[in-house]
Design a protein that fits this description.
heterodimer, A: 314 residues, alpha/beta, Glutathione S-transferase Yfyf (Class Pi), Chain A, domain 2, Rossmann fold, 2 domains, four-stranded parallel beta sheet, 17 helices, 46% helix, globular, B: 657 residues, FAD/NAD(P)-binding domain, 4 domains, five-stranded parallel beta sheet, 34 strands, 28% helix
Chain lengths: 314, 657
């Protein structure tokens, strides 16, 4: 049994409850024992680092120090923003020991930071620690026929020198996991574009425009649904979708699912466990495509000539 | 009794502002052996040198110390001043009080002054033990090796050969011509590239002083300036060039198709091929990696159709040796691989090509008959987006330097596109237009006016697919807004990158290269065509990105250098080399092992004292020794001494401080 420290972040206990609950189901199926970090605190999100740099580092550092008290070697983080803050802090601390000491001195009662717990996003944990083969093994209800646009958002693979995971511009890890589930990922060029993030509250128009383009392109790619691994992306693309549709004057009706919801479904959990009622855009019509035949694109039908082999003989 | 003259230089403000020069002169005068000490604003100037010459004669000096800049800068100048005054030039010592004192201690004048005096004391002490040395004459092999048959190598070979000096031109591919042969028209005059290049290629082939070795690679270089020995591998061509007429029957009938490197893989060539119609030599070679006869022993069609019986499947690689005196390296460049630009969808979108692919397409002899087409569907594009600086000037994803030619060839491409597809429109994303060169700015203006191309200042940030179009996003910094251009075809001006085998070649030749793989010149300003190794010169893009005129100019410069080197029957060489004292040498051969130049061999000499037996001692090859001193340091019996840096001179220096 693999053990993992779980950092849910504030949204998993609120707006992204369906992420949290399906994550727990999936981990159970994958034989991973998750232990929620006791007494965890806010990562600082976008607010702390506009105040002072030290504050923005001290908040995640406290969580990193707390995580070292548990025996687990990895902390999995559900929220992309929490992941970004925590991983950035870890990289900063590990590469600047003097700074680490200084920030550590502000949270001295929590203990000393050693840097021996790894920080991963759930996507990274699934892809690197579990692997697509092990995921495929657990599939009892293949999502064949479901066309999925994999949307990573801006933080899960960026910046490259911090995350050190997948490509910052055209990542494929989630696409590979979707293939393992039996679904078909679409050629989606907007997988790392910004959704507008927290402007959702302060300047909604920005989100309507940015998330609108993402929806437009996902639809264009032929996807039935968009899969995400970030609560804020999910919320922007799902909750703002009716406003986006109104603004654009057209219907997208494309549901936004968490990666763990689709994994849970493929692992054989019933539809109700996905908490469909939590979605603004209903998920059932999209999921009804499961079981449909997907036409192979024309170029794939033809035997490939001179593409795989370097030379050919007439 | 020694009579030393000391000349302290102000070097304008370089030394004068940070060192109390008059005080240094006064300090020098206190040294017993110093009979004359004076300061001057620029000792390297003509009056400065005259001062030295006069003092040598009038003060009957026995050695001279110049306290000034690094000896790398002006040692030669001052040595000449000494010899002009009838003094042995090696009785000069330079105290480097600029780089070693004034420049590095600008905040502490007192300490810098003290250190300068110390340096002078050392130099004076050393100079007292200086001996009269004389330049060594080394015989010269008057034949040059040119590596690389692109325009730079061709020009270097022709210029050297025109001076009636034999040249061996080694080219790795089946034909000379290089990248220039792949170009359509050239900026800023729109001359047809092939039309101006092919006559030169033919000249190379027919020149009585040029030995052309195509399909060959240099694999070893031994020796030293004037006396190198090169081993060259002649790759098996499986075609007897002596009997082959280049009729082409073999490649017409060959059934194996391979992506055509000359056309950037846009079309196919055969396994037996001549890279392009104007190839020199115009003889085919068999590509052993793809020929089914050579791989599986099946086929043999080319041998059957060859009327001359020139095909020989049993041919083997052959190693030839050439004695040469100088080397010109002109290996050219490769295109930088734009793979890190994942946001452009490089590798995912077929309709993104690089500039050299575009160049092949618009070439009259190109794979698409001179018309640009979309690789995805073969349609002629209407909207073409050119993106400059792909890789260049990008510290994050690419390389820091500017590739120098992309602004120009992109402007040319907009013109060519306009000529070939009249209802087309070009968009150019650029950072700056760098058009420094004769007629260059005018050419860019002409292209902009004639084509009406839309120049957008900013780096393209993203390319995505919408239907069968590519959407190019980027910032137009001049209006401060994100713009989006619908493109049928996107052309990336990918950076010039050093030829991939440069590091291996550099190690083989014993020269240095930079962090990218460009071969390093000896001095970026004053010795731009020499390498740090005597007798090896650089031409063209192997040293840095260059356009054709610059490559040709540098190639001619190397030719001048080679001709200069070969001007006499012998070459003068610095006498500061190691000498073995046979009396002390025990023949341990430690020096043989540490010598980085393989300059030490052993010899047998009589034991002496009436004994008939022989004993082994070290022997130094005067021509090869570079005077590095490694052998002196390793010698346990102190049998080796370095002229100009004898143990006595060094000890004197140490005692002086």
């Amino acid at each position: 049994m693999t053990k993992l420290t779980y950092f849910p972040g504030c949204s998993a206990h609120g707006t992204s409850e369906e992420f949290d609950s399906t994550l727990k189901l999936v981990m159970k199926s994958l034989d991973v024992e998750m232990e929620e970090l006791p007494d965890w605190n806010c990562c600082g999100a976008t607010s702390a680092h506009v105040m002072t740099e030290n504050f923005a580092l001290a908040l995640p550092l406290r969580n990193l120090v707390l995580a070292e008290r548990l025996p687990n070697k990895t902390m999995g983080i559900a929220c992309a923003s929490c992941y970004s803050r925590m991983k950035s802090t870890k990289v900063e601390m590990d590469s600047h020991p003097e700074l680490a000491k200084k920030i550590n001195s502000t949270i001295v009662e929590e203990g000393e930071y050693h840097g021996d717990v790894d920080v991963k996003s759930m996507l990274q944990f699934f892809y690197e620690d579990i692997g697509t083969d092990a995921i495929a093994e657990k599939v009892t209800y293949p999502l064949k026929g479901l066309k999925i646009a994999c949307y990573y958002g801006c933080l899960l693979t960026r910046p490259k020198n911090v995350t050190q995971f997948d490509s910052p511009e055209y990542p494929m890890s989630m696409d590979r996991i979707m293939e393992a589930l039996g679904a078909t990922p679409t050629a989606f060029d907007f997988k790392t574009e910004c959704c507008g993030a927290s402007f959702s509250i302060s300047d909604t128009e920005i989100v309507l425009s940015l998330s609108g383009t993402i929806l437009e392109m996902a639809k264009e790619s032929g996807a039935h649904a968009i899969v995400v691994a970030c609560p804020l992306c999910q919320s922007n693309l799902d909750m703002r979708q009716p406003d986006i549709e109104k603004r654009a004057g057209k219907k997208y009706e494309i549901p936004i699912l968490y990666i763990t919801q689709l994994m849970a479904l493929a692992f054989g959990y019933p539809m109700k466990d996905l908490m469909p009622a939590k979605h603004i855009i209903p998920i059932e019509p999209a999921l009804a495509h499961i079981g449909e035949e997907i036409e192979t694109p024309e170029e794939k039908k033809k035997p490939k000539k001179a593409v795989t082999a370097e030379s050919e003989v007439e | 009794m020694a009579r030393v003259g000391v000349f302290v230089c102000f070097c304008g403000a370089n030394i004068g502002d940070f060192v109390d020069v008059p005080a240094v002169v006064e300090e020098a005068k206190k040294i017993k052996e110093v009979k004359y000490a004076i300061d001057y604003k620029y000792v390297c100037s003509d009056p400065g040198q005259q001062m030295i010459r006069d003092a040598i004669v009038q003060q009957r000096l026995t050695s001279v110390v110049v306290a000034a800049c690094s000896p790398r800068m002006h040692e030669k100048t001052f040595r000449k001043a000494l010899s002009d005054a009838g003094m042995n030039p090696y009785l000069l010592e330079v105290a480097n009080i600029r780089e070693h004192s004034s420049w590095v201690h600008q905040k502490n004048k007192k300490a810098a002054t003290g250190k300068s005096s110390d340096l002078i004391r050392m130099a004076v002490a050393k100079s007292i033990a200086n001996e009269q040395l004389h330049e060594i004459s080394v015989p010269v092999t008057k034949r040059a090796l040119v590596i690389g048959g692109g325009i730079a190598g061709i020009q270097a070979a022709l210029d050297i050969a025109d001076a009636r000096i034999p040249v061996v031109l080694v080219e790795k591919s089946p034909s000379i011509g290089g990248k220039m042969a792949q170009l359509d028209e050239t900026f800023p005059t729109l001359d047809c590239s092939q039309c101006i290049l092919t006559p030169k290629m033919v000249d190379v082939a027919s020149h009585p002083f040029i030995e052309l070795l195509p399909y060959s690679e240099v694999i070893e270089l031994d020796g030293y300036v004037g006396n190198y020995k090169a081993k060259i591998k002649r790759k098996a061509s499986y075609v007897n060039f002596d009997t082959c007429t280049g009729c082409g029957a073999c490649w017409l009938k060959c059934p194996v198709k391979v992506p055509n490197e000359f056309n950037m893989g846009i079309d196919k060539r055969k396994a037996i091929y001549s890279p392009f119609p104007q190839a020199v030599p115009n003889k085919p070679v068999i590509d052993a990696e793809h020929c089914t006869m050579l791989i599986k022993g099946k086929c043999g069609i080319c041998a059957k159709v060859c009327e001359k019986g020139s095909i020989d499947y049993t041919m083997q690689d052959e190693i030839v040796e050439r004695e040469i005196g100088a080397v010109v390296v002109a290996t050219g460049y490769d295109l930088w691989d734009p793979k890190p630009y994942e946001e452009y969808g490089v590798g995912r979108f077929k309709d993104i090509i690089n500039s050299l692919e575009f160049e092949r397409m618009v070439s009259a002899n190109g794979p698409t008959g001179g018309v640009p087409v979309r690789p995805s569907d073969g349609k002629v594009p209407k909207n073409v987006v050119f993106i400059q600086c792909v890789g260049s000037r990008d510290e994050a994803k690419g390389i820091e330097y500017c590739s120098k030619i992309c602004c120009m060839y992109t402007a040319k491409h907009t013109l060519l596109l306009h000529h070939k597809v009249q209802d087309s429109h070009a968009y150019v994303f650029y950072m700056d237009i760098r058009a420094a060169g004769k007629g260059y700015e005018e050419f860019v203006k002409r292209a902009q006016v004639e084509t009406g191309a839309t120049y957008l200042r900013g780096r393209a940030s993203k390319i995505y697919k919408k239907g069968d179009k590519l959407m190019v996003q980027g910032e137009d910094a001049q209006i401060g807004q994100v713009v989006e251009v619908e493109a049928d075809l996107v052309v990336l001006a990918t950076a010039i990158y050093p030829y991939k085998d440069n590091p291996d070649l550099a190690r083989l030749l014993g020269i240095s290269y930079d962090k990218y793989g460009f071969l390093s010149e000896a001095h970026p300003k004053l010795r731009p065509v020499e390498t740090a190794k005597a007798g090896i010169f650089l031409a063209g893009c192997t040293q840095a990105p260059k356009d054709i005129p610059d490559s040709v100019a540098q190639a001619s410069a190397t030719a001048a250098k080679v001709c200069g080197l070969f001007a006499g029957d012998t070459m003068k060489k610095d006498p500061m080399i190691a000498h073995v004292n046979n009396e002390f040498c025990t023949g341990c051969q430690n020096c043989v092992n540490v010598c980085p130049y393989q300059a030490i061999v052993t010899e047998e000499i009589p034991l002496g004292y009436g004994f008939k037996e022989l004993r082994t001692v070290a022997k130094i090859n005067e021509g090869v020794c570079q005077g590095c001193g490694s052998c002196v340091a390793i010698c346990r019996s102190m049998a080796i001494d370095l002229a100009g840096f004898t143990d006595m001179q060094i000890i004197n220096e140490i005692v002086a401080i």
